[in-house]
Amino acid sequence: MKQSKRSIILKSICIIVLLGWTLFPVYWMLSLSIRVDKELISSLSLIPQSFTIDHFISIFVKNNFAVAVMNSLQITLISLAFSLFFGLACAYILARARFRYKLKGAMLFWVLLVRIIPPIAFALPLYIMMNNLGILNTKIPLILSHILINIPFIIWFMISFFASLPEEIEESAEIDGATEFQLFMRIVLPLVLPGITAVAILSFMTSWNEYLYGVIFVQSPSNFTIPLSLATLNSEQELAQWGSIAAGGIVSLVPIAIFVIFAQNFLIQGLSSGAVKE
Amino acid sequence: MKRKLSILLILCLVMTMFAACGGGGEEEGESTEPAKLVVAARGGSHVDVLNAVKTDFEAANNCTIEILGLEAADLKQKVSLDSQNAVGAYDLAMADDPWMPEFCEAGLYANLTELGYEEDADFVKASLDIGKYPYAEGDLYALPFAGNVQLLFYNKQVLDDAGFSVPESWEDVLAIAKAVNGKDGKVGYVIRGQQGNPIVSDYLPVLWAFGGDVFDQSGNLTIDSQEAKDALKLYMDLLANGANYEKNDIVAAVSDGKAAASLGWPSWYISGESASAEYAAIPSKATAASTAYPTGMIGNWMMGVTANSGNSELAMKFLEYVTSVDVQKAAAEFGGVPTRTSVFTDSELLVKYPYFETILVSTENSVVRPRLVEWTDIETAYGTELSSAISKTKSIDQALADARAAIEAIMK
């Protein structure tokens, strides 16, 4: 059906507004990060009137930002790997297996509860546990807490994907001699790849930007993550270092952007890799 | 190929995991290794100062010192949490001065007198008193690490153009604001009216100049007294002849001559040897004819040895070192404000940092915020109501009455 000129113009305007709405904060952050300090403390124009990379240099030289980036990467990737491993397995079992005594509903609710309760409620008990285990001076508490946040989300997100798969496909594979593990790895997972990709992107972002547990568990500057490092650049009795904060924000966007671009391929692959042979 | 990639990925993950489990890189050493002190500090210039001066101490005492710089609220939260441990992660902790009653009451700081510290009269009394619990009378629990007191900052050119000199009363400030506001796109006086700590810190000096206070000498709540109502009325008049900005914008406006004056902490306007605006003590009178009261809000950053420090003797030694005359002199290079009279009045330093004189005078005539464990909550409630008044969602009477009710509920 041919679209009318008016409809095309209307859609274009909507898209431009939407793009502007979503991308402007990124543009603004970038524009703040490249302005000299003097321009940052006077009335700001939409277009930067100066250019400098000093803020980027400053965060790496003065604020040890490279350590924070590496820590964030380490914590995010490890917690994501574990969360996906356990989360996907749990989601599949909860979607497919039959439980006695209506345990399934109770288990689902239990999992959801972790997500419903405000994260701060877990903070103190977790802190005491980690402290008793003597692991507060490591990154393990952060990794574990990120796994705790992400697993329920992955389970709830993926259950519907697994449940919507026709059981006949799995039965066919079983008839062909596939073991439970082969069935899960080679048949089921490729079919829900779009879902896995989407949940991986969201979990990655959750972990990457997590601040609360970071503040509570991190005991050493050598374990600082990006959000913690950026928070120290703004305090009540000193002026906020907007240039450095913006530069840190831009740097922290890069790994997320790379991960999303990389993961997008799997979104498309997953959609196109059907169960039926052509 | 896929299998190889998977193996490589798993290997990378396992290696990263081991690295992560390795901790902060500087593990607690065996007895032969140097001792380690961890200082929980407020991020920013304080960390710069500590990092700059710690090396000499490390060399002289065969120890390593780790400085954990945190945003103020996070610092308070972490130090409070760590106090629950038998042996704490931090040997020394910094505290904003209003936190002192809370920290001391919770037994978070070690008693410095019991650790063998002898009171040093060189510290400005107003600063040293903050480290005592009960305030000014009890034992010493923390030493003033960084000096800080609110000042009046003004743009000299703007005042000159309007034909005014440095204001001596709030009546003068209002007159300046009225004369400047709206002329050539300028604003008169800039307030910091955001809820919570900002508006309370910005308004209290006005309240004090009017002879009011949050509590009277007997501890009765007086935030809705006639003085308080008059002070809030003037504060709102200042806003009507000025603007309500966030701190960065306040500094930009006054420094660039787009506003006449504001209150502020020295570190906002002063950096190293120069200040971006002129400074003076905060006006101490409501009108030229009224009684003068102390109005400079003190905001020292204190440092104490944590009660659960595993190395309190060395921590005490480091505390004495970082608050010593020599270190305070050296710290000035990194933006540190002293707390010792001898450093404030050092003739060489005064040439370099002329603002030391004003800060010393203001500190000596400063006022502390109420020494109450509940102050943080009170400040939040009070700030909310003050903000309602200046945004005109409540009348002055209603806002102050509601503030009273909220504070009474907190104090119960």
Please provide a written account of the structure.
The complex is a heterodimer of chains A (278) and B (412). With 278 residues, chain A is an all-alpha fold. Chain A is built from 13 helices and no strands. Chain A has one domain: MetI-like fold, CATH 1.10.3720. In chain A, 74% of the residues lie in helices and 0% in strands. In chain A, helix 1 packs across helix 13 and helix 4 packs parallel to helix 7. Chain A starts with a helix and ends in a 6-residue tail after the last helix. Chain B is an alpha/beta fold. Chain B folds into 2 domains: 181 residues, D-Maltodextrin-Binding Protein, domain 2 (3-Layer(aba) Sandwich); 185 residues, 3-Layer(aba) Sandwich (D-Maltodextrin-Binding Protein, domain 2). In chain B, the strands form 5 sheets. In chain B, strands 2-1-3-15-6 form a 5-stranded mixed beta sheet. In chain B, strands 9-8-10-7-13 form a 5-stranded mixed beta sheet, sandwiched between helices. Chain B is globular, with a radius of gyration of 24 Å. Chains A and B meet through helix 4 and helix 6 of A and helix 1, strand 2, helix 3 and helix 10 of B.
What attributes does this structure have?
heterodimer; A: 278 residues; mainly alpha; MetI-like fold; disordered C terminus; B: 412 residues; alpha/beta; D-Maltodextrin-Binding Protein, domain 2; 2 domains; five-stranded mixed beta sheet; 18 helices
- How much strand content do the residues of chain A show? under 5%
Query: How many whole angstroms does the radius of gyration of chain A measure?
Result: 23 Å
* Percent strand of chain B: 15-25%
SS element count, helices of chain A: 13
Order of helices and strands of chain A, N to C?
HHHHHHHHHHHHH
Alpha-beta classification of chain B: alpha/beta
Name the overall outline of chain B.
globular
